[in-house]
Amino acid sequence: MSTQTAAAAATETDAPIMLISDLVDGVCEVSLNRPDRLNAITPELMRAIADTHETLAGMAGLRAVVLKGSGRAFCSGLDKSGFQRMKTEGRGSLGMDIMNRTHGPANMAQNCCWGWRELGVPVIAAVHGFALGGGFQIALGPDVRIAAPGTKFSVMELKWGLVPDMGGMAVMRTLARGDVIRKLTYTAEIFETDKALEYGFVTEIAEDPLARARELAREIASKSPTAMRAAKELLNISDEEAGALPALLAESRLQKDLIGKPHNIEAVNAGVEGRPAVYE
């Protein structure tokens, strides 16, 4: 598919940081496009993802979406510049009030994950390289995840003295056992694709996840578009009844009390300096 449309917002080199392909047979491909930074998350990327959701929602004839990362990774998590801002700017480090519900039940950061859930058509993520921290949470938003062998995943926020706050907890609980989620959250351990499949975070493993995601998207697009949209709405209602929406607000409330505080700053300093953290 040739990419002709780019979401608003750009990097310092003016390259578009979200790419939206032409619509072919009801399928559109969307790419996180900061390959030089392993598609690391910045406030600009968050806003570009929101713009992309809006564009897709208004796209006539859309039946399925393939979400991927450009270059060597799906998404490596929060850009390191964000950690520096946490140290100097505290909870305003992302340029937003995380308690503000800007996208339905979600804030701007949570929308990076939750917006794929709320999009009216199925979304298939092709995941490779890394899906760490916020990048892992973005990957949880789509309906299906196809991952390459050896892809590295992590619920990494505790490493930085934080909790997952990009919508991930609201989705994780529908995919994996509670004790598994707790272990991964508490340890911030990195696990690979075979374990992600065992836990329930990955739907399928494929040597070429993008090719498989495209194949699955075409299959979905061949079904009744009205029935497919109704099916997704029904599944989302089921998740919401299970308590997903209160989890979004709880994420923000708890994170707001952590960002910029001494333990968060010490965790960031220790991680950047490659030393054990010392908490008082």
UniProtKB/TrEMBL annotation:
This is Enoyl-CoA hydratase/carnithine racemase. Belongs to the enoyl-CoA hydratase/isomerase family. GO terms for biological process: fatty acid beta-oxidation. Pathway: Lipid metabolism; fatty acid beta-oxidation. The keyword ATP-binding does not apply. It holds the Pfam family ECH_1. Transmembrane segments: none annotated. Keywords: Fatty acid metabolism, Isomerase, Lipid metabolism. The keyword Isomerase applies.
